[in-house]
Sequence to fold (284 residues):
Amino acid sequence: MASDGRRQVGIGSPSSEADPRAGRGRERPVDTLRTLWREWTGLWGRDEDRFTIVVLVSSLVLVLVFTLWGKSSFLVRHLDAATDLVGWSPGHPYAPMLPYLYWALTSVVLRVLVPLAIIVLVLRSRPSEFGYRIRGVTSHAWLYVLLFVGMVPILVAASFLPSFQAKYPMYFNAAGGWTHFTLYELSYGIQFVGVEAFFRGFLTFGLYPRFGYLSLFIMVIPYAMVHLGKPPLEVFMAIPAGLLLGYLALKTRSWLFGALLHWSVAITMDSLAVIHRGGFTTPG
Fold:
């Protein structure tokens, strides 16, 4: 026993009554395995621990599945097969839009529907406990409007950066006309619903009962990492932005306005990038 009263941790650690120098024989391998298994299963003996583990493990799996097969880049690599599936020729004017429609679809399935199924069927909880609510949250809408207004000067300044103009809009045909731009922004908005429902909803609310506000710092790790590949400034800004959106979601008990804010910022970014390129190439 350590002098400060903390219990020693280790395989076959002596109990407080046992003398570690008492010539006890070596522990058999089977006993070591039993000890490991008992300590391992004891890590989540409480209901709240099992609840937390379901959220963490399912979130990890969903992040990996989405990264491997749910992003628009996955369909870009298989665009010929996708156009054949919908009966389009590779030269169809909206063929390049398919990866972003796919991105919106996988966002709904992997970041909204699957977590909802886990919430209801596995965790036996109500979706409203994970931020899926509208009633009673409109009184906080002014906070998000204020945040958006404060973001506009930053976005305008960032829009002059070459890295910004080279990245946005991510759908290069978005500058081709209002139809392309609108269809892309709609799919982009659906994707943001998935982002907020998953990171600020399922992950943040799911971890809050066990970790309190520390759940925000756990959530922001994978959230920042999904921004890798974007301009460095945006990657690092994802950390404070994710923490702030998560905090507001917990305080308002909803992630809905976070999704609207995220989408509004994205539309503004894409619009500024199109303006810097000289506007739409065609009026339609």
The CA atoms of residues 190 and 259 lie 9 Å apart. The chain has a mean pLDDT of 88. The radius of gyration is 24 Å.
